[in-house]
Structures are given as C-alpha cells and as structure tokens.
Specification:
alpha/beta, Rossmann fold, two-stranded antiparallel sheet, 7 helices, globular, disordered N terminus
Amino acid sequence: MLKFISVQFFLLFTISTVWGAGYDETLARYKIWPMASAAYSDNPAQCITDNFADAKFVGQYTYQCDIVKDDTCSGFVAVSNSDKAIILSFRGSTTAAQITAEVMDELLDPPSPFVGGGGVNKYFLDGFNDVWNAGMRNDFLTLKNANPDYDVWVTGHSLGAAMASIGAASISKLGYVSPDKIKLVTYGQPRVGNSDYVAAVDTLVPYSFRIVHAHDLVAHLPPEGMLGYIHHKAEAWYNNNMAVGSAYTICDADEGSGCSNGNIDLSISDHQSYFNVSSGFAVNGCPGYNPNH
C-alpha cells in the first residue's frame, strides 16, 4: 500500500512539474504573447483587434531612455472587456546601441533602489519610469478606476520583460491593484534585481511566470550573482521549439535548478522566437493566431 501511495505521489509531482500547477498556457500562448509582440509595433491596435473579441487600444507611450537619440523605451495600454483585463505591455530593445547600454549598466552599475524593496538594474528602472510617466500611469489609473473588478495583465519580451517585472511589482506595492488581481507573464526576461527585490516580487505578484525558450541567452543575463542579480520565480521552461502541444517544466522557485538555469549552451536565436513565431510577429497584426477569438 505504501509503495502504491509513493508511486501516486511521484506521478502527481511529475505531472505538476511538466504541465505546470497554476500556469495557464492558453493565456500565455494565445493572449498575452501577442500583446508582448505587439509592443514592437507602431500600431499595436491592429493586433489587439485581431486577438480579442471586445477590446480597445488606449495608448502607446515612447520615450528616449538613454543618451542615444534613437534608443527609446515604449509600452502600451489596452483593455479586453471580454476577459475583464487591463493590459500593460512593454517593448524590448530595438537597436544594437540600446543593447550595449543595457549590458554596460548590468555589468558596471550596482542595483538602484526599488520602491517595493531591494534594488534593480538602473537601465530597466529608468526605462519603466520614463514610459510610466509618459502617460501610461494616467491611462492605467483611468481604466482601473472605471473597471475596479478587472484583472491587470503585465507583459513584455526581453528589455520589455524587465520593465514589466518592475511595473507589476510597482502597481502592487503602491496599492493600485491587489496582488491577486495581477498576472505577470514575461518572455526572455533578463535578471532584473537583487535578492531583496526578488523577495518583494515573489510576495507582491503571486501569479508571475517568466517563460524561457530552451537556451535563450538573455534569460542568463546578467550572470547569476553578479552585483547580486538573481531571478524571481516562477519559470516556465520549454526545452523545445515551443510548437503547440510542446511539453514544459515549471520551476516554482527563484533560480530553479530544474529549468533553464543549468544551461551552458546558450542561443540568441532562441531569444528571438517564442511559441514557434518570431518575437515581433505581431508588428503587422496577428490575424488567426488566437483560435479562441
């Protein structure tokens, strides 16, 4: 009898590890990923219309975020009435100069203080604050006040993922939305802050998944422990091409050893493709991507 119970426990553990207790793949693949991709577009409204039955594009906010004129940080706000969700999406890097500036901050500058506790990368924090103060905050608060029962989905890819992490934690810490109403889902997220920041995010944003594609290089930057940087939980790791039906592993821990953290063979191409489409696939809309539309 004891042996039978042990086998049952092993099977249940395996299923929850491979298929992800609490992780909603349909949400991550078909609804939030197109929004992360659409942030790369100058017209994100097109993908919002393509992807949701009853949605509205509210505004896009772009701001120069370092000394190079063409280096901007950007994000947009939308609302899906059918999902009862306010959507905040942040864009990833767009130029080689911007990536260089990020890396220099990651390697040289100690984490900057975060309102919720701990420290975060200065470039990520400045980028979030620039976009937030360029109109995103005001439009978000207007939507939130008009729809107090709506959830808040926060997302982004690469640099946008780091900004999304800071954004979701800030919204929770400042009391704009209760933690149980926030869903943070990111793609190819670099390490954002130190251990105190990680502890804050784990408390402030209970539904948080960093989706990592196989050997994605950016998910390993900055190197673990450098200047104190580590990942917050949880990770959804797809060690495959992420096609429909692909298996994944959930590591419900900071720097979960059973997920991508063990990789030494890293790839930039895996960073540029999620769910078997390029990171910017929604630049010209995303008709037909969501089968549930």
